[in-house]
Amino acid sequence: MAAPDDGYAVGLEPLDAEVDDLELEVIGALPPWLAGTLVRNGPGRWTALPGGRGQAARHWFDGLAMLQRFAVRDGRVHYANAYLRSRAHEHAVATGAWGYPEFGVGPRRSVVERVRALGKPPVFGDNASVNVVRLGGRHVAVTETPEAVAFDPVTLETLPPVVFADDLPGLTTTAHPHLDRTRGSLVNYTVEFGPRSTYHLYELPDGSLERRPVAAVTTDKPSYMHSFSLTPRYAVLVEYPLVTSVLALAAGRPFPDATRWRPERGTRFTVVERATGAVVVRTTAPATFCYHHAGAHEADGAVVVDLPVMDGARAFAGFDLEGLRSGVPTARQVAGELRRYRVPLDGGPVTYRLLTTTPLEFPRSLDEDDPGAAPGVVHGVASADSLTTTFTDRLVAVDTAPGGTGATTTWSQPGCWPGEPVPVGPPAGVEGDPVVLSLVLDARARASFLLVLDAATMTEVARAHLPHVAPLGFHGQFFPEVVPA
Ligand SMILES: [Fe+2]
Predict the structure, then answer these.
(1) For residue 304, what are the β-bridge partners?
(2) Are the beta carbons of 72 and 38 closer than 8 angstroms?
(3) What is the dihedral of CA 198, 161, 39, 473, to 10 degrees?
(4) Residues 82, 18: contact at Cβ < 8 Å?
(5) Cβ-proximal residues to 138 (8 Å cutoff; 6+ apart), any chain
């Protein structure tokens, strides 16, 4: 285990300062073709007020959303960060307390208020701290409630919220919509809670705000699914036995307390035909859990889904702030076992094989916006051993091509804790080698840096130093259309 001053816990301290626009010192040479803006999302602080004041959060996922952007052009990098001025943020700042239920914390409510809320659906907020995406012609921050918060990717100013031009029901959604560049659309689903709940799969054409229903799949108990898979013909929902009680949510219980690990239910694979909305397969396999699907493809008579799976009983509890800050590794599993599941379209038994022995999380791939792309290299954060390391401490590239070796290529540096790698390739018709961009916490230096690696060799191309520690965050996207002036 690393020495204490090497630990990742400095990444759980708040960053109150907001930087307007700062040119970063770049070590190395950025590829000349690399132009655009990387926007990263994640919690900036875990208290309602700056300075560690006000009501405290309980879970890593609770923190107030802070955007960071790295504008890249001509080998130079300009940085800015800003809190998302969501209703949830504005309420927290005005009152010193949470105004809406977050993942593991919520408003303090009197007994009378709790009784009044019974039987009514919970009202979630818009602290969109998980991911960013281009949706309906806008850049938006998203979380697992359907309310997307628009922002300016240059100034990071919060813009009026997105209002969908439809009445698709749903209380929650995923923060991992698929962009399907072959169809020019975004695909995601909402979850409508009820005596029987419904997953509403939808497609949103580029530039539109009208979600077109694709399929409605009912379930007796909604599963906590953080993402799903898409191929040209199919969408694949993988319902883990981590089930949510809407009654408990309505009673004001935080999400981890309203959700139970029920391994006896198994994991249910549902394959939906995108063209018709028909459920082609619904079949159950042994219990497992996964946050981030790593890719999917169609094979002879089957759909194949790559999942970094972990123990569902550890999925939430392991990321409590108290446990995370303690640095004790046994309470959580920081990365999953990358399995390739084969789901026969004739309803036959689901089987899997291990793709690599390296535990992996935050999987990304260069052609993830093309549902028909053959499996290739998956990038992710990793750890040497998911049950004994304190946190993910390296970046990996895994060869997942059919018939491939599963070989991994790794980058790491002592005392450094890398965030999700975002692969970026040169524009069409431009020569150059793809890179991955990762925001790395250097605990020894007590500062973070943007690391640029060659995507194939995982060797360093360049790094750009930040003046501060960027709190440990979640997801980011590179927007090539946002080129700095
Ligand atoms: Fe995620």
Answers:
(1) 297, 342
(2) yes
(3) -60
(4) yes
(5) 150, 159, 162
214 neighbors 196 (Cβ within 8 angstroms):
no
Q: What is the residue type of 340?
A: R
- Across 31-136, the runs of DSSP E, i.e. the strands, are 36-45, 47-49, 53-56, 64-73, 76-83, 131-135
Average pLDDT for 160-166? 93
Cα angle 294, 296, 301; round to 5: 150
* Ligand 1 centroid – CA 78 distance (Å): 26
pLDDT value at residue 185: 97
Is there a contact between 141 and 65 (Cβ–Cβ < 8 Å)? yes
How far, in Å, is the centroid of ligand 1 from the Cα of 474? 6
pLDDT for 1 equals 42
Bridge pairing between strands 351-354 and 476-479: unpaired
Helix (H, G, I), strand (E, B) or coil at 248: helix
Give mean pLDDT, residues 360-368: 96
Q: For the CA atoms of the chain, what is the radius of gyration?
A: 21
How many helices (DSSP H) and strands (DSSP E) are in the chain?
4, 36
How far, in Å, from the CA of 142 to the mean position of ligand 1?
10
Distance CA 117, CA 328 (A): 37
* pLDDT tens digits, 14-33: 999 999 999 999 999 999 99
**How far, in Å, is the centroid of ligand 1 from the Cα of 324?**
18
Residue 215 pairs with which residues in a beta bridge? Answer: 201
Alpha helices in 47-145 (DSSP H): 87-95, 111-117
- Return the number of other C-beta atoms located less than 10 Å from residue 290's C-beta: 27
Q: What is the DSSP string of 451-470?
A: EEEETTT--EEEEEE-SSPP
Going from the Cα of 164 to the center of ligand 1, the distance in angstroms, rounded, reads 22
Q: Choose the most confident range, by mean pLDDT, from 142-146, 330-334, 361-365.
A: 361-365
CA 314–ligand 1 middle distance (angstroms): 16
Distance 60 CA to ligand 1 centre (A): 12
**Average pLDDT score over residue span 290-318:** 93
The DSSP symbol for 373 reads P
Best CA proximity match to 244, nearest among 253, 255, 233 = 255
Q: Is 196 exposed, middle or buried (0-12, 13-18, 19+ CB in 10 A)?
A: exposed
The tokens for 253 are 């219980």
Give the Å distance between the CA of 80 and the centre of ligand 1: 22
Contacts by residues 164-168 (CB-CB < 8 Å, ≥ 24 positions apart): 164/209, 164/210, 164/211, 165/208, 165/209, 165/210, 166/209, 166/210, 166/211, 168/200, 168/202, 168/211, 168/213
Going from the Cα of 29 to the center of ligand 1, the distance in angstroms, rounded, reads 30
Determine the distance separating the centroid of ligand 1 and the alpha carbon of 475, expressed in angstroms: 7
Residue 309 Cα to ligand 1 middle (Å): 14
